[in-house]
Automatic annotation (TrEMBL):
<keyword id="KW-0472">Membrane</keyword>
<dbReference type="Pfam" id="PF00528">
    <property type="entry name" value="BPD_transp_1"/>
</dbReference>
<dbReference type="InterPro" id="IPR000515">
    <property type="entry name" value="MetI-like"/>
</dbReference>
<feature type="transmembrane region" description="Helical">
    <location>
        <begin position="54"/>
        <end position="72"/>
    </location>
</feature>
<keyword id="KW-0813">Transport</keyword>
<feature type="transmembrane region" description="Helical">
    <location>
        <begin position="207"/>
        <end position="228"/>
    </location>
</feature>
<feature type="domain" description="ABC transmembrane type-1">
    <location>
        <begin position="9"/>
        <end position="228"/>
    </location>
</feature>
<dbReference type="GO" id="GO:0035435">
    <property type="term" value="P:phosphate ion transmembrane transport"/>
</dbReference>
<keyword id="KW-0812">Transmembrane</keyword>
<keyword id="KW-1133">Transmembrane helix</keyword>
<dbReference type="GO" id="GO:0015833">
    <property type="term" value="P:peptide transport"/>
</dbReference>
<dbReference type="GO" id="GO:0015031">
    <property type="term" value="P:protein transport"/>
</dbReference>
<dbReference type="GO" id="GO:0005886">
    <property type="term" value="C:plasma membrane"/>
</dbReference>
<dbReference type="GO" id="GO:0005315">
    <property type="term" value="F:phosphate transmembrane transporter activity"/>
</dbReference>
<dbReference type="InterPro" id="IPR035906">
    <property type="entry name" value="MetI-like_sf"/>
</dbReference>
<protein>
    <recommendedName>
        <fullName>Phosphate transport system permease protein PstA</fullName>
    </recommendedName>
</protein>
<feature type="transmembrane region" description="Helical">
    <location>
        <begin position="77"/>
        <end position="95"/>
    </location>
</feature>
Length: 242
């Protein structure tokens, strides 16, 4: 095969970052609204919860077709990182929103009462008391969603593309398709590369290449999980002084 898997691994990491930049603020805001501000008996809240349940139960092939038709064709992004990130956001948004909401709800009500008793506004209580206390659970949701991003192939084959063109590491123009930080270039991820080698590879060492790439993917996911949990604990300890 030749060429190694460096570009594919970089594409996986970059796609993860772009997806999280899009999906995490949306899920955090939706989780805070549903947990702290929404009228639990209103039709709007029930509609939002129903929509989340429907999205979380969609088969992956439906999300693949939706991402291809909307982001690749209708929006005109073509096979690109931004198309893949938006399709993965549709995957991850229900899971992350529910995780954030449940993590916030798990915080004892005395924490909220204590913040309000100290003169904090409701928003300040949520931002400085509730969210830091719920941070370990939120980090768990981020880790689970990140694992899905690293391992997802079906949703990326028809959105992010199946090729990994050479990158010019001295070109930092985000609008150039040869730039590593461009979100408008095709980006074969490591999971898609493994799928291609298994499904279309014709070289004699295809099985060995696939096994090696799979091992790298597993090791990187493990390192990412441990690193995210370690950083999350440090941030939680700093914010809560525990």
């Amino acid at each position: 095969m030749g060429g190694g898997i460096g570009i594919q691994l970089f594409n996986s990491i970059f796609l993860l970052i772009v997806t999280m930049v899009i999906s995490f603020p949306l899920s955090l805001g939706a989780g805070i609204y549903l947990s702290e501000y929404a009228n639990q008996n209103s039709w709007l809240t029930n509609l939002v919860r129903t929509s989340i349940e429907i999205l979380s139960s969609l088969p992956s092939v439906v999300v693949v077709l939706f991402g291809f038709l909307i982001f690749v064709v209708q929006f005109g992004y073509g096979f690109s990182i931004i198309s893949g990130a938006l399709a993965l956001t549709v995957f991850n948004l229900p899971l992350m929103t529910r995780n954030v909401e449940e993590s916030l709800r798990a915080v004892h009500h005395t924490q909220r009462e204590g913040g309000l008793a100290l003169g904090l506004s409701r928003w300040e209580t949520v931002l400085h008391v509730i969210v830091p206390e719920a941070l370990p659970g939120i980090i768990t949701g981020v880790v689970l969603s990140s694992g899905r991003i690293f391992g997802e192939a079906a949703a990326l084959i028809y959105t992010a593309g199946q090729s990994a063109p050479a990158l010019n590491w001295s070109n930092w123009n985000p609008m150039s398709v040869s730039s590593p930080i461009s979100i408008f270039r095709q980006a074969e991820t490591l999971a898609v590369h493994i799928w291609k080698v298994n499904g279309e590879g014709t070289v004699p060492d295809g099985a060995a290449v696939s096994a090696g790439a799979s091992a790298v993917l597993i090791i990187f996911v493990l390192l990412f999980n441990f690193g995210a949990r370690f950083i999350g604990k440090k941030i939680h300890s700093k914010l809560t002084a525990s």
